[in-house]
Design goal:
Layout (H helix, E strand, L loop, with lengths): L1 E6 L4 H9 L5 E7 L5 H7 L2 E4 L6 H11 L3 E3 L6 H10 L4 E4 L5 H17 L4 E8 L9 H13 L4 H4 E2 L14 E7 L5 E9 L2 E9 L3 H14 L5 E3 L1 H5 L2
Parallel strand pairs: 1-2, 1-3, 3-4, 4-5, 5-11, 6-8, 7-8
Antiparallel strand pairs: 6-9, 9-10
Helix pairs in contact: 1-8, 2-3, 3-4, 5-6
Length: 242
């Protein structure tokens, strides 16, 4: 049984993680929240699972590196500074960072990349996502993950093609851009739709999360997979062998 420590254990996702740990073949050895010290937890866990807040990431990574403990990071709203910290940590420990731990979304990202590559720039790409009223970041980490997949399929980066704020007189759509729309309300666990709009036709592919447990199961499955891996930065696609 794999010993698992949860960072952000009192949050909605943290509670969902704790509930599924035994079902996926792990043992919960503890959890911490805001203001807690991650070092003791990192020392007794085989792997850490972090769904806390971006502000806690630096100290969490430091604790994981000091203990030599691999870590799965599902926290969203990360900045380039956070990604630089993750890259540095990956020189010492195995790190899996992702905007979505759903196995279904992982496969969807692969399909989006392939579609973007095959269809080319004549097809406009729009990504629509909806989440519950409590979500604090937009676009969602999953939407950005799908945007990155689409951009990679076109041989570019999301930073070069992203359009996330349309309001007022914006003018005609620029060719090659990838647009985002974020909806918030109710208790929606997570809906994502990628629209490829051509002249006279559209292709729409998406994913709907009906229960937060699917993310929890995906995260714990991936965390267990990460144990024993050499230092480096890993992806959910590698967990599925994609």
């Amino acid at each position: 049984m794999t010993n698992i420590g949860i960072i952000g254990s009192a949050g909605r996702m943290g509670q969902a993680l704790a509930a599924v740990v035994p079902d996926v073949g792990g043992t919960l050895v503890g959890g911490i929240d805001a203001g807690g010290d991650a070092r003791p937890l990192a020392e007794k866990a085989d792997v850490l699972v972090d769904f806390s807040a971006p502000s806690a990431l630096e100290t969490t990574l430091a604790a994981a590196r000091a203990a030599g403990t691999p870590i799965l990071i599902g926290t969203t709203g990360l900045s380039p500074v956070h990604h630089a910290l993750i890259d540095a940590a990956a020189s010492d420990i195995a790190v899996l960072q992702t905007g979505n731990v759903s196995l279904g979304v992982t496969l969807l990202a692969k399909l989006v990349r392939e579609a973007a590559e095959k269809l080319g720039p004549d097809w406009d790409i729009e990504i629509v996502e909806m989440h519950h009223r409590h979500k604090v970041d937009a676009p969602s980490g999953t939407a950005l993950l799908l945007g990155e997949a689409a951009a990679a399929g076109r041989g570019t980066t999301l930073a070069e093609s992203r359009v996330a704020d349309r309001a007022g007189l914006t003018g005609a759509r620029s060719e090659g851009t990838i647009g985002f729309a974020s909806l918030r309300g109710g208790s929606v666990a997570g809906d994502h739709q990628v629209i490829f709009a051509g002249t006279g036709e559209r292709i729409e592919i998406g994913h709907r999360a009906e229960d937060r447990a699917i993310f929890a199961k995906g995260a714990i499955t991936a965390a267990i997979w990460l144990v024993g891996k050499p230092a480096g930065r890993y992806t959910m696609g590698q967990v599925l062998g994609l």
